[in-house]
Amino acid sequence: MVxxxxxPAVGRGFIEGLKKYNFDNPSWANPKPxxxxxxxxxxxAAISKxxxxxxxxxxxxxxxxxxxxxxxxxxxxxxEYDRTAWQQDLNSILPIDRLEEMAEQGEIGSVSNEHYxxxxxxxxxxxxRSAQEVADRMKKDAVDxxxxxxx
Amino acid sequence: MLAHFFESYxxxxxLVGFVKEHIQAIKPPRALWLxxxxxxxxxxxxxxxxxxxxxRSAFNLFNSSSGPILEDFPDIIPVRNGRMGYALPVELxxxxxxxxxxxxxxxxxxxxxxxxKQAYENAVAYRGxxxxxxxEMSIAEFAPYIVSFLKGDIPKSPRKGLGAIPQLKLxxxxxxxxxxxxVTHRDGIDDFEKIGSWFWEETKAGRLILALEAVSLESENRxxxxxxxxxxxxxxxxxxxxxxxSSGSGW
Lengths: 151, 251
Prior knowledge:
heterodimer, A: alpha/beta, two-stranded antiparallel sheet, 7 strands, 24% helix, B: mainly alpha, 9 helices, 48% helix
């Protein structure tokens, strides 16, 4: 178990900096029944299609991952987390195949045509504009459920 | 935070996360805490049932009528000494005057890369994909590009819109991915501590990057010094202490 107090200052400062924001009155969207859900993944692993612009350290924009083009690379600045799992199996960080299998089995309704990637080292407050753009795309794709997956 | 944004736009969200205190602080509507190493949010590569168990546990939180709700995934994937990824031993430091002849180093690394070529290609063929290529340089170009920094040059970046040093970081990660993709398949291992030890403590490529670290630390280029200081080239984030000679500001 990782404790913030045991992290080096680099990570500790970043995470503790988020405490300045107020989360006391969060929004709440009632979920659809599971068989009707259309799910999209939002990753903060800084993955993108080969040839996309690499993420910069403090990037607050996103990349679009189409489900029919999963030739992806990772341009995250941090090196403190394991990358060998995703090298072996994309589903280790972007479980598209698992969601498709669950849709085939009727555990969820369907899987979106697109998924989205941000870089987790950036201040998420500054991602709001990009998150709105992602939300607009997801609405066009009839997505109602978001699975957020960090690294 | 992204969970709050998307929830406010009308989407039902659930997240998985590694740092429980962080989740407790930001209070996302629904969250599943994973007592796992960072980088493995679905737990185990090539284990579809384990991965689906995590997704099912996360999606079960949609049954809750109110939040924020935070539950623990019951299984634990242990880590060594509380560290969440491989960390270079503090004593594994190369000094600039220990680097030696960089042309010899280049030849040794190129020979090592060539020696792994068939196994790498086998891994790519087996998986149907590779993660090598973020730098958009060919594998043969990785070592010469890094060596140019060892010689004190800041070469022109081959990519429009990306500086030489951000490109260097991608090249370093591509070089490492070439090795680790190869060894995980060739040797059938999935222990990132062993993989890290092998790459950083045994290979010529690992020593090349340690030499780059040594040169960067004494460089007049502020960005080059900064990426070493922030542990963005070598895995010292979880090490017992900072790289000697760096500012130590990261610790």
